Amino acid sequence: MLQQVRLLLFDLLMMNREKAPGAAENPPRPEPLSRKFHLVDFAAHYQKGFRNHIVPIIDVPALVQEFKSYGCYATYFFFSDELLTYMSAQSGSPTVSSYEGKVWAPHLPIDLDHAELTPAPVAARQLSDYFIDRWQIDPKGLQIYFSGLKGFHLRLDSRIFGKLAPERGLPALFDALRRHLAQEIAEPLRATIDLSIKDLMRLLRLPNTIHEKSKLFKILLSREELRVFDDRRIRELAKKPEVASRD
User: Domain residues for 216?
Assistant: First the structure.
């Protein structure tokens, strides 16, 4: 099954790939992705201007601490210095808006939400089981978060798909994967998968930060906690940040 998903990824990448005129058939060996694609757009509730603050990913923990973990976000796609060049060429206040360069992502995020409390955790359980039992991924490649309000965020390590190269078409590829996954859960739960997080500048709430409405933390849950804990117990855990594994 996972091999079929990898083939789907390959097909989607090939459809979205744009080959530059005169590009070499054997380009130079690229820099490690963690070094070249290392920038994110960081945003915080009390940060002046909220967003358009491009920083190295290694600076994010200190920024979260600076803003006391309150309402902190970052893009889930990572950018190269090309984004800074794009912004520096603008007149007026630089913005990330309309940027269309290559991006990379260490994780495929899946945002599960619903107006009612029950559907999102049920969908999170079904998808978690699907990844482990059907795709047979390493459980360490899946992270499960309570969002801090009523939703759940799943993060799949992108390495399970093989070596995922930076692409302009990566947002479209991730969108196609989420739409595929929506068909793999029970029909009443399909609407819990947020399909609007497909743009390359989409912000996601950072782990261990405080939700502005509930004042609860976005916390990491084990599969067992997701399976056995009810909403009340999860919310009780989310009153404080995750400091160590509860396993």
Answer: 2-16+35-237
